[in-house]
Amino acid sequence: MTWTLGGVAGMLAALAFAYLVLRVAQLIGKAGTILDETAESLRTTSANVQPTLQGLTDTVSLTNDQLARVDTITTSVSTMTTNASALTSIFAATLGSPLVKVAAFSFGVRRAMADLRTARR
Questions:
Q1: How far apart are CA 1 and CA 8, in angstroms?
Q2: How far is CA 63 from the centre of its chain?
Q3: Is the pTM for the entire model greater than 0.85?
């Protein structure tokens, strides 16, 4: 067998092509491994996220219940405040003015009695 320049060039081209195919196969293998790891990571993440979302849903539900209770309490406090204000107004209207008059009258009587005692001495 004789080696010609074209034969050597063809052999080198065939070896270069074989090396290129081998490197592409290695890259495809690595890409497949990366895709497998990614798929496993997604499965794990999905398995971990579902209980977290369920817990979050429960927390939001409990928060809504507590907010409803706070709303009821706020309404009750508002009613109590209105009632206390009305009671204060009624007290001021019915007893406040007469009490002020009685206090002023008693002060005047005490003052007059004190002035009489001073005048007798």
A1: 12
A2: 10
A3: no
Q: Tell which residue, 9, 12, 30, has the closest CA to residue 20.
A: 12
Q: Which two tokens stand for residue 107?
A: 């002060």
Q: Please tell me what DSSP assigns to residue 93.
A: I
Q: What is the dihedral sign for C-alpha 89, 94, 95, 100?
A: positive
Q: Which two tokens stand for residue 86?
A: 């009305």
Element (H, E) at 46: helix 5-91
pLDDT in tens, 41-80: 998 888 888 888 888 999 999 999 999 999 999 999 999 9
Measured between alpha carbons, how far is 31 from 25 in angstroms, rounded to an integer? 10
